[in-house]
Amino acid sequence: MTTVRAFLARATGRPSEASGPPRCPAREVWTLGCHVLQRPLARLLAADANEPLNPADEARWRALIARRAQGEPLAYLVGHTEFWSLTLTVTPDVLVPRPETEILVEQALGMPAIDGACYLDAGTGSGAVALALKKERPQALVAACDRSPAALAVARANAAALGLDVAFWNGSWTEAIAARSCDLVVSNPPYVESTDPCLDDDGLRYEPRGALDGGADGLRAIAALIPAAARVLRPGGRLLIEHGAEQGGPVRSLFERAGLADVATHPDYAGHPRVTGGLWHG
Q1: Tally of CA atoms within 13 A in the half-sphere of 59 that contains its CB
Q2: What percent of the chain has pLDDT over 70?
Q3: Which helix (H) or strand (E) covers residue 130, if one does?
C-alpha cells in the first residue's frame, strides 16, 4: 500500500516513472491532499513514513491532480477560495473571485461610512464583493443581483455561512432598484472580447462563459450597465466598474456620456488599469 509520504514525494518530485501521479505544482498537490484527507497542511507534510494512504483517497487525490494538470481551477476542485479574508464556496456556476477584484472593494471603502447607505453589487456571482462590503460596512444596506439562479444559490449560501445580511434577487443589473435610491453601485461585469482566445485557455474555459464574454468589443455589458446604474444613484452616489486592462479610455467615455463626473481609472496590484469610477451629481 502507498504511504502518504511516498505519494507526496512522487507527486511533487521530478517525474521519474510513467506510473507516477500527473504533475502540478507542489503547493497545489498539498492543497488537494488537505482537501482529500481533511487535514491541515502541517499534518499532511508531517505524515509518518509508514502512514498508509487509503486506496480510495489515493485514487481521488490522483484524479484531482489530473484535473488540475488539465487546467481546471483549483478553487473548483476544493470547492472554496479566499476573497477579502472571507472563505467563499465556489462552483462552476460562478467565476472564481480574483485578487484584482478586491480593487472594487478598496475603492468602495473610500466612501464615507454612513448608517443606512445603500450599496448594490450588480452581477454578484459568488457574492464576493457584496459580502466583503457588508463585512466592512455592517451599517449599510447591501443588495446584490445576478441573472443566474445557480449563481445566486451560491451567493446566498455564502451569505448564510458567513452570517452576513445581504439582499439577493434574480435579475439583470438594476431593474429591481428604485430610481435615485443607491449611494453606491459596484460591478464586475463580463468584459472579455468574444473572440479573445483566452476564453478557451486553461482556467477560463471551465468558468461560466456568460460571466466573461462581453461581446465583440468586450463592452456590451458595461455599456448597458452604466446608464442603468446612473438611473438609480442618488446625487453624490458613486459607480465603480471593473474592466479589462485596455478598456480604461472607452469606459471613461461611457461614464461621461451617461452624465457621471469626476471619472477616474484605478490600477490593479500589477499596475494595470482595472476599475473606473465616477460620481452622479444629479
Answers
A1: 3
A2: 96
A3: helix 128-136
